[in-house]
Specification:
mainly beta, five-stranded antiparallel β-sheet, 2 helices, 29% strand
């Protein structure tokens, strides 16, 4: 459920309103399809979803350094299976003065690369966000310039429903700082529901 955004350096005045509207649309989509992904008996407790405040400093330009060779990585999933991902390249960017990088992947069960899959973990996991990490998805660009926007980071569907099979973020995508942007646990919760 990635959302298209404008780089932080040239954000429109209505950027917070755009993100708020995307969040409201996601809540509405979840409510209109009980059980997919939120089980009907958990709907009242989980929706509307909880988010960190919108912070434009977490929407930053990034360059994608293509992988010299696209290699496959086998990652464990929430149901104990193994998922094959293909490394597309490394996104390089800065957040609040710190240099960071995340590997962008393609899920091999999809025939074409229509989105870059960016699973990540950070120091909020387990206390403020889902213990297994969060995801972002980016639309490929011909320029190699992207926007990494943590305001649209989301919990994988296995957070809501353990029947979903979600790949865990690989070790190379463990950020060494808290990312207080995007989806979070409800403030009254500090663990998986």
């Amino acid at each position: 459920m990635a959302m298209a955004v404008t780089p932080a350096c040239s954000q429109p005045d209505d950027y917070p309103a755009q993100i708020a509207a995307q969040r409201a649309a996601k809540d509405a989509a979840f409510k209109s399809a009980p059980g997919d992904p939120v089980p009907a008996d958990k709907m009242a407790a989980m929706v509307p979803l909880s988010y960190f405040p919108i912070d434009e400093l977490y929407a930053v330009p990034a360059t994608l350094e293509p992988a010299a060779e696209r290699t496959r990585l086998q990652v464990p999933t929430s149901t104990g299976k193994i998922r094959d991902l293909e490394r597309i390249g490394t996104l390089k960017f800065m957040v609040k003065g710190q240099k960071m990088s995340l590997t962008a992947f393609h899920e091999l069960d999809q025939p074409q690369i229509t989105r870059l899959f960016v699973p990540f973990s950070d120091f909020t996991n387990g206390a403020e966000t889902y213990s297994a990490g969060r995801y972002m998805e980016l639309d490929p660009t011909p320029t190699g310039i992207y926007v990494v926007d943590f305001n649209v980071a989301y919990h994988p569907f296995c957070y809501y429903n353990p029947e979903y099979d979600c790949p865990y973020p690989p070790k190379e995508n463990r950020l060494t700082m808290p990312i207080r942007a995007g989806e979070r646990l409800p403030k009254s919760s500090s663990s998986v529901p």
